[in-house]
Every structure is written in C-alpha cells, then in structure tokens.
Amino acid sequence: MTATPRELYSRVTHQVWDPELATLPRWRAMPLRALRIAWAVVRDLADGQLTLRAMSLVYTTLLSLVPLLAVSFSVLKAFGVHNQLEPALLNFLAPMGEQGVEITGRIIGFVENVKAGVLGSLGLALLFYTVVSLMQKIERSFNFTWRVSEQRSFAQRFSDYLSVILIGPVLVFSALGVTATIMDAEVVQRLAAIEPFGTLLQFVTKLLPYLLIIAAFTLIYIFVPNTRVKVGSALTGAVVTGILWQTSGWAFGAFIVTSTKYTAIYSSFAILMLFMIWLYLGWLILLVGASIAFYHQHPEHLSPARAEQRLSARLGEQVALLVMQRVGEAFYTGRPGWTTAGLAERLGLPMDLLTPVLTALERGGLLVRAGTEPVRHLPARPLEETPVKEVLDAVRRDGEDDHLNPGRLSPDSPAARMLERADSAAGAALADVNLKMLAVGGEAGTAGENGAGERRAS
Fold first, then answer.
1. Are residues 11 and 66 in the same domain?
2. How far is CA 33 from the centre of its chain?
3. Do both 381 and 325 map to the same domain?
C-alpha cells in the first residue's frame, strides 16, 4: 500500500528528530545536526518572518542607499580611494548585467550631486538620520533572528553605527588595495611562473573573492546582533551565506539574460524591479545565514515545528532566585555585575526566556541596570534587608495593574482564600531568609541545592 504524503512526512520527521545526537557517533551526529538546522531554517522561511523582514530592508535600502554611499564617498575621498566605490558597486550589481551598469551610473551620479553646501545643516542631519535608520533596521532584523528583545542604547547605537559607516569602507578598500598590491608584487609574479606555485596561485586568486565575502559576513554576524555570537557559529553561517551569495548571483545573471519579456511589459520600470529583486535576494540570504548561525549556537531551539517557548510559573520563580543569587555573589565578591548574555549562558537559558524574568525583577525594585556597554545588572537595594519572598512575589505579580489583578476577580471566594493561605505559609517558611544568605550560601541547604537547581533550569 502506497504511503500518503502525511505518512511520509511523519516518517521523515521521526527519522530526523527522534535520535539523540549525544548517543550517536560523530560521523552520524554532524550530518543529522546540519539537517536539523536546514529543517529549522526552511520552516522559518515558510513561516514568513524572514521574507517579511527582507522586504522591509529592501524598502529601507532604497531610501538610504544614496545617503549611505554619499557618506562613504566623502570618507573615501578624504583617504584618496573614492575611485574604488564605483567598481565595488559594479561588482555587487554584476549579476544584473547591462542593467547593473546603468543603475551604477545613476547611483554614482546621485552621490556626486550630494553636496554639503547645498544640503545645509538640516539636510545633512536628515542624511545621517536616513543612514542610521538603515543600520537600526538591520540590527532589529538580526536581533529578531537571535531572539534578542533588548536594543542598544541611543549613545551606543550612534557610536557603533558611525564607526561602521565611517571606518568600515576605509578598512574594506584598504584590504582590497593591500591584496591587489601583494598579487602584483614582483616576488609573487616570479612564483607564478614556477609550477606548482602558478597553479596554486591561480586557485587562490579564484578563491579570494569567496574568502573576502565569508570574512565580511562573519564580521557582520558577530557585531550586528546585540548579543555575544561565537566565532564558530558566525563562520558557519557565513560559509553557507557566501556559497548561496555566489550561487544566487550566477542564477540571477542567467535569469536576467532571459528577462526580455519583463522589459517589454514593464518598460523602464523593469530595471527598478530587477534591482529590488536582487536587493531582496541579498537581504534574504544574509538573514538566512544569521538564522543558521543562531541555530548552530543555540541547538536548544531546534524543533520540527516552530513553537513559542516560555517558562512555567515554577521555573520562572527558580530562575529569578538563581539570577539574584548570581548577582549577589558578584556584588559581595567585588566582581563586575552580570550582563544579560552572561547570565543566559551561565544558566543555560535562551536570552528571550531570561529577559522577561530580569524585567520583572527590575519592575519589582530588586535589580537595576548600570553602564552602557555592556549593560550590567546590580542589586537595587541592600540584599541583607531584602527577603527572598520578594523575589517570588516580583515574578508572580509581574504584569498586574489596577485593572488586571486578583482583587478584581473574586476576592472573597474559597479559591482566593486558599491562595492567600498558601502565600502566607510560603512567607512564614521564608521569613528568616534574605537575599544575602542566598548569595553567600548562609542558609542551611541553600548552597548544596543551588547547583542542582541550576542544572534543572538549563
């Protein structure tokens, strides 16, 4: 009997997701893990969020491209390498063929018409705002992929974005110039005439564009998300992205050759449409690579079906206590306060699950943020004067207000009285325990149970 598509899907799902990777030999575990990452990325693409954000970035890019290039052109001109901007743009639009050459000419013409004296102070401010808004939209898209809800502070965004905009082009074109100088050096030319060095050098020359693209994508995946990204995970996403980038360029170039019908239908609008399609593919590939890097670093998010993870009420209380314990330990030992990423890694929790707990503790007046880069969490008041029960109350009562709280339901009902008795009993049991005792291990049994509780939370 022939299996139905649903039955085939169920069989494949069990084959991919049922085995425990830890029990498999490495030669089987690695391909299976790669297959699970590919499954999760395709699932996210089908969900539509990645494509939606890629389309949003296309719109923002169209508005910000000329101002961005104008700022880069001004910086490069100061270093005398502004003439390399046009070849770089031509290389990016090479898959578009003749249309790419035409678009490059028009963009460069727009950039050359941008003059500070004509724009004035308000125009320059709007120009920089447009560029910064593009960078902010890119960061938000990457943060969404990495499940990061915290944004960089305004001062940090301003300094980081300007560093990328002003210094980035100089470093990129300097690296390209150094590479070209090395390849044209007399020693290299002599080596090229000797075999097998000539064949090896030719291979390196063909491989160099791929290596530069992979290196650029690796840096993007490390620095753009507002979280700590491991180099290995960023490199994994960058390698796949680099291959997809080159392959899509070849495929898009083949599509352009056969796109005469679109030119006949849309006339002069065809160039704009093709340009937008290429931008969309570029941003989508970049976001796919970010998603691969995320799942490589956080395999706990891998699952056959996308599901919104959340902490149970019991686990939320335990995580809150562990957070206050870690923050208190750092405070009393004189170490720097914990960052959100550091706490998430220490507890073995994704940042998107830990952030609501930290927010609840801040609203409850138990934690405060200090510093700008990175932001660290410190005790909001003396721990020896803060009962442990307040931590549990802060997590349990987070989100309540004057219009949504237990008192508006049935305060005199048997259920309300039962919960009040349970709450009073918990308060009496923890009456003599404060947060300093939790942090330094003074409470009987606390020090020995913390490690096991922390392992259960992870």
1. no
2. 20
3. yes
Claim to verify: residue 28 and residue 94 sit in the same structural domain: no
Beta bridge partners of 378: 368
Q: Who wins on pLDDT, 212 or 328?
A: 328
Q: Are residues 357 and 241 in the same domain?
A: no
- List b or e across 317-352, with b for residues whose CB sees 16 or more CB atoms inside 10 angstroms: bbbbbbbbbbbbbbbeeeeebbbbbbbbbebebbbb
In a domain, 79, yes or no: yes
Residues 192 and 155 occupy one common structural domain:
yes
CA distance 386 to 84: 62
- Do the bridges between strand 376-379 and strand 367-370 make them parallel or antiparallel, or are there none, so unpaired? antiparallel
Q: Which of 317, 320, 329, 318 is nearest to 441 (CA)?
A: 329
Establish if 198 belongs to a structural domain: yes
Q: Does residue 291 belong to any structural domain of this protein?
A: yes
- Whether residue 308 is contained in a domain is answered as no
Task: Report the pLDDT averaged over residues 370-397.
Answer: 85
Residues 79, 154, single domain; the answer is: yes
Residue linked to tokens 């290429």: 278
How far is residue 312's CA from residue 306's CA, in Å, rounded to a whole number? 18
The structure's pTM equals 0.71
Structure-token pair, residue 449: 């149970």
Strands (E), 331-407: 367-370, 376-379
Q: Which residue is listed with tokens 């009285």?
A: 417
Q: How many Cα atoms sit within 13 Å of 78 on the Cβ side? A: 9
Q: Which of 281, 272, 250 is nearest to 107 (CA)?
A: 272
- The whole domain housing 199 covers 48-301
- C-alpha 409/C-alpha 420 separation (Å) is 14
Percent of the chain scoring above 90 in pLDDT:
10
* pLDDT band at residue 232 under the 50/70/90 scheme: very high
Q: What is the mean pLDDT of the chain?
A: 77
